[in-house]
Design goal:
The chain is an alpha+beta fold and about 180 residues long. It has 4 helices and 8 strands. It folds into 2 domains: about 130 residues, Thiol Ester Dehydrase, Chain A; about 35 residues, no CATH class. It is globular. The termini are far apart.
Amino acid sequence: MTAAKLTAADVQRLLDRVPFVRTLGLVFEEADGTLRSRMPYRPEVVGNPRVPALHGGALAALMEIAAQAELIRTTGATRVPRIFSITAEYLRSAALEDTIGSATVITRSRRFANLRVELRQASSERHSHPMAKVRNEVRRLFGRNPPGRGRFCPLLPLSSRQWFDHWPLRSSCAGQKRPPPQRAK
């Protein structure tokens, strides 16, 4: 069962519901069959005016949202996917100009996906080399219950300490109830 790919306008309409996307002023466009996320330069996203360079948090947000946008486009999702893990590599500082993010799905299953995102500057002399790369891991692509599946593992909402305490149950968590939380004495 493969969903039809959405257009850039559909992705823009869905992600414009997220306030931070509107704050950054992100624009989604298609070029050469790929979805590109563009963050226009604005003085509010400057991190260090002495260098001058864009803020790393704004760049990380662009990379995360670019990954979500690509998943929305390829899966036809009606909700924004949740990012589980993000590993960013900043290769050089970002000049004060438009920044373009493009994502590629590496692997995808019903519930999980791995993506690679690259950021490039809009100017032609800096466009050939990426300035940042990220690898995202997305969990729960379809919200709480994916189509045609039962409930998710009840241990996922546990804290990291509770997860560690109950790690043997991870592989056989189908149909089990979550243990009651233990209070610290």
